Here is the input.
Amino acid sequence: MRFLTGLAMLAAAVFGVAALALMPWWALLALALAFVAWMVFSRRGSQAWSVTWVGLSTLPQRLGSSSVVVVGIAGVVGVLVALLAMGEGFQATLKQTGSDDTAIVMRAGAQAELNSVLDHDSATLIAQAPGVLKDKDGRPIASPELVVVASLPKKSSGLDANVEIRGVGPGAWALRPQVKIVAGRAFNRGLREMIAGKGAREQFAGLDIGSTLRLNNQTWTVVGAFDSGDAHDSELWADADVVAATYRRGSSVTSVTARLTGAGAFDAFKAALASDPRLKVDAQTTRAYYTAQSAGLAKLIRILGTTVGAIMAIGAIFGALNTMYAAVSARAREIATLRAIGFRGLPVVVSVLLETMLLALAGGVLGAAIAWLIFDNYTVSTLGANFSQVVFGFKVSPALLWNGLKWALAMGFVGGLFPALRAARLPVSAALREL
Amino acid sequence: MKYFHLVWAALFRRKTRTVFTLFSVLAAFLLFGLLDSVRTAFAEAGSSVAGVDRMVTISKISFTVQLPKSLLPRIQAVPGVKEVAYANWFGGIYQDPKNFFANEAVSENFFDVFAEFEMPPQQREAFRNTRTGAVVGAELAKKFGWKIGDKIPLQATIFPQKDGSNTWTFDLVGIYRASDPKQKSQENALFFNWNYFDEARRFGRGNVGWYIEKLADRDQADRVAAAIDALSANSDHETKTQSEQAFQVAFVKQFADIGLIVGAIMGAVFFTLILLTGNTMAQAVRERIPELAVLKTIGFSNRSVLGLVLAESVLLILLGGLLGLAIAAVVVGALKAALGSTIPMASVGATIWLRGVLLMVAIGVVVGALPALRGMRLRIVDALAGR
Here is the structure.
């Protein structure tokens, strides 16, 4: 019999957590409203509220042990939200770099621009393929680009790390209108001048306007800073022809990016390139290209975050159980008295459960708030597909905060359920006799 | 030690509470074991003893830029350099991009310089004599079920063949093992002949990715590095020479500052753990005030009461912590077997255990300090009277 009740309690806990995890926000809100209505309008409900109120009013006396629940759950939610925000930020940065109406073309088989080589003739052919948008002078809006890597010291560690240099064609500005010069000026074509993205300037030393860089025994000058709000922020931009000369690349490029007449034009564009016997290239939309780059790392971070969160949650739940069992036994006489004068078991269960979940909610809000205050837009960088640093900011989105709160409520539910049921099944006479 | 049963009895005075606290401690140290294993793996990358007498020469711009092969005889002539090998990153894909492993084209003497990669002499001979021959690490061979004599097709991502085809097929002629069993993660690479690679590739011929120099005397490292870099100074292919270890540390750091992330997570975990177990210990001592007074009455000194309570809290953390670390050791072993080199993880070895136990004792003392002081300072008369 005891085994069966234990099993039933476990099933209830699992069911509650699953329901919390799966329910959309409006269903939970409706449930919470229904619950409040029950407490306000029904007799049993108002009994439950008064018992809960007695419990809550004794909270200040149990501040130390109650803070265990709050801080324990705040820790779990804070770590969980921060880790997931890292994955989300990386994914968002790369995703918004691409769009459905621009296409990137690389040599067949290449996984990243750094690995690709296209000769000058191929690059010209690609820009003239059908489906590429023309500007008012009738020139295709396309940029043959040469992506290379330079090694620069990082501000944080002083160690050398790779920074991506993107040599761009004249069409790059029309192709990527989101790129804005925020300080200094644009580089002049044909000169050894470059402009540095916002993220690159934050992570690497020596990219102030006016400073010089030595690449392959040639001196380059940083003449401006740009901001694009996406992965290009991690790059240095310069004239493709001059980069090619410095890196001894002749007239070859690594990729051609083109603006299409619309998202629908991509299939025809791709088909035209595939059917041209002079070309051996792969075309994809920039959205697909950049999204694929983030998939692996984002998934890894999601798995890592959930695992770490789950293990921490186990610790926090046992902490909450301890606290609430102690609270129930401290209030044993009071609860027994209530039962003796006619209160049913339900208000007692509700009171303990509600108290735990309120503490858990406070913990969840605290943890989410800390994660948001410290980590929203916190910039870090990692090695991206082009063997160079991609700078991105943590993104603490409302969805993540909500997710964190749901974790908190679930932990509160499990941590409160068992003590609540113990409170309801307290033998009245024995509890009253206790000292 | 003679009071052990007393401490033990005090600890399990309230079984449920102690068991719940133990589970919390266990979860914290399980996490510590897992994360520290990852952190150690990243920190130890490049700290293998085998590589201390080797230097790596890469292009000063970045290691993705190739160097001319004409540097080889000039580097060989630098005094203090015993042997020079060279390699090229190939970046081929086996069947699916998810099956990532390192594959490189290497010079004939590569396995002389990397003496810690061991294989039978006849396989070395076969590698030398087979133009399309390839050698793989034992772990990698196990993962894909490769045997000597198999043909391994790789899809090139960087280097197409002369005819434009991306498929390179290699004959597996040897399987190497790392001489140090701790470096098993090194057995996840494929090496093939640079001569064949250079002949068959479509572009970039005559260039190598990087040079590896074996030094005659490791104390000469700085001088040799400067001499090698001086060879190409002010040319259009300047080099940067550093110890293999420094090169790998810098490379790993580019992924992320793993130490910082792990440190931040563990900070949050241990902060909550201290609060949680501190609460348990405070409760435990509060309940037992009269008992502690009795102990003092029958002659226990203040200091032994302090010791008893501290021992209890250290024992609590040690019990949960050791169990958690033991589970972590099992889980890490299983993950390493299942995932291979996807996530670098170090086995939970002596150093992680040592760090863990030191942490447990430290946390135990911190957590027990306040309750123990309270127990030490209590006045027998007041405590017995329940004041």
User: Anything to note?
Assistant: Residues 109-279 of chain A form one domain. The longest strand of chain A covers residues 142-153.
